[in-house]
Design goal:
CATH topology: Spore Coat Polysaccharide Biosynthesis Protein SpsA, Chain A
GO molecular function: 2-C-methyl-D-erythritol 4-phosphate cytidylyltransferase activity
Structural class: alpha/beta
Catalytic activity: 2-C-methyl-D-erythritol 4-phosphate + CTP + H(+) = 4-CDP-2-C-methyl-D-erythritol + diphosphate
Family: Belongs to the IspD/TarI cytidylyltransferase family. IspD subfamily.
Number of helices: 7
Protein name: 2-C-methyl-D-erythritol 4-phosphate cytidylyltransferase
Order of helices and strands: EEEHEHEHEHEEEEHHEH
Enzyme class: transferase
Number of strands: 11
CATH architecture: Alpha-Beta Complex
Shape: globular
Length: about 230
């Protein structure tokens, strides 16, 4: 419970390693002596406020995930199968939540370096907002181009953020927005975009993220992660 509210977590780890050309799915790659998903779950399970933790994985990875979960023996964790897309996987996690869930934090299972403090900062903003997302200010100048790769304009870097997870939402609201999404032709790349399409009156609060909170997407990310782990020792 968090401030008297039932608190849930949805951890998505249902993607594949195709962009890296891997034979094994990314959550089960080892960084140092631990698998990526194990690192993510170590942080999430350390947060006592979570009443339930829904882990969304590919059906074919159930045995790999079960092996990792045996290290935790945490009764709050429940596995569900992912869908054909990131959005479907997230929604599968949402509909598996306890009906009493008030707040939910969604997190990419392949962001193993999100700190406990980051989760708690997002939660703190959830006391005021119905949507709060972690993000870092862009270090680079960003250009917006047209379909021909020609620069159209340069947004003010002061207001440009790189969006991360965890992201926190009012459970009933995010579920209702996802229902609208699946009835539409909209395309999103993160959950908070649902508010831009379907509930622009509800503000989405940006929470200071962490530059080390990278998503394991490319081979270079894995190299960075291994170096980061060595640096922590």
């Amino acid at each position: 419970m968090y401030k008297g509210k039932f608190l849930s977590a949805v951890i998505t780890a249902a993607g594949s390693g195709t962009r890296m050309g891997l034979e094994i799915n990314k959550p089960y790659l080892e960084i140092g002596s631990k698998k990526i998903l194990e690192l993510s779950l170590t942080t999430v399970t350390s947060i006592e406020e979570f009443d339930e933790i829904i882990l969304v994985i590919r059906e074919e990875d159930f045995s790999l995930a079960t092996e990792i979960l045996s290290l935790f023996r945490d009764p709050r964790i429940k596995m569900v199968a992912g869908g054909a897309s990131r959005e479907e996987s997230t929604y599968n996690g949402l509909i598996a939540l306890n009906p009493d869930s008030d707040l939910v934090l969604s997190h990419d299972g392949v962001r193993p370096f999100a700190s406990r403090g980051l989760f708690l900062r997002v939660l703190k903003e959830m006391e005021t907002y119905k949507a709060a997302i972690s993000a870092t200010k862009s270090k680079d100048t960003v250009k917006v181009a047209n379909e021909n790769g020609e620069v159209e304009f340069t947004p003010n870097r002061e207001f440009v953020y790189n969006i991360q997870t965890p992201q926190g939402f009012d459970t009933r609201l995010i579920k209702s927005l996802y229902k609208k999404y699946f009835e539409s032709e909209a395309k999103i790349t993160d959950d908070s975009q649902l508010f831009e399409f379907f509930d622009r009156d509800e503000p989405v609060k940006i929470v200071e993220g962490e530059y080390s909170n990278i998503k394991m997407t490319t081979t270079e990310d894995i190299i960075f992660a291994k170096a980061f782990i060595k640096g922590e020792r």
